[in-house]
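Q: What structure does this chain adopt?
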Amino acid sequence: MVYIRRKRVKGIDYAYIVRSVWDQTNSSSKQKTVKYLGRASSVTEEMIPVEYRNDPSIISFITRYSRIDKEKNESLTRRLSQNLFEMLSSGDLHSVIRIFDKYTDLFGTMQFFDNMLRPIMYEIGKLWAEEKLDVATEHVCVNTENALIKVINERQSKPANKNNKAKVFICTPNGELHNLACNVLESILLSKGHKVYNASPSLPSDSIIHSLNNIQPEMILISVTLEDNIQTTKNLIRKIRTAFPSLPIFVGGIALNNTNKLEGFDSLNTLVIRNVSLPDTIKSIKLRLNVMPTPHA
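A:
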């Protein structure tokens, strides 16, 4: 049996994962600490060892106690988001890394991507579309974000898991020049030990098919940020389906969040990720990868 135990020190609750083990000598049960989690109010799913994340007692604890400082945490997120936007705009990578470190120490990398970086990505795109942000500044922001992701990858990427040799191919349709979302997905999947082939941005369909034939991945992820590229994405998927009828395909991106141009994806046996949080997106991907028996040909 495993659960999270709280210990109060100077008015602050700290959390530990503990496991009940049987002491044969004394014929009694005793607690063995599995992991120290820090402040109870800052515990997130990402901090829990994978084998315990679905335990009802663990889920109950996170749901109850992670909200104790919710208002305070939201205020911190807003303040750091404003600082992050300013540092990205000025190309100050060192300050961006400091903000990343401060936030992830409290909430984890996944929450940084989902609660801070993704909203800022959308805001930058919106300001640029409304001509409230010049092209040069937009490029500085995106380049600095990509530099941050490179630093993150160097810190936390793992070698491919020998027990899970799933290969994931990431791309964008031809003409799509934005690939920050692809880089974020690559970073997270690498940290989980997957083998990732990031072929973004903008690659002709024939080149993608050629790469898929060589790599034989278990899954393909396609990102599209411009509505004008939705039809190009559908055309790409049709070509993939001709060569790989059963290859799992996920397609998502800001272009799909606020549009009704989704006809045709169902007939292409494609899962559309739309208005879904990053943690839920990763869960869907992991769930599909976990049930894949062999590479698709």
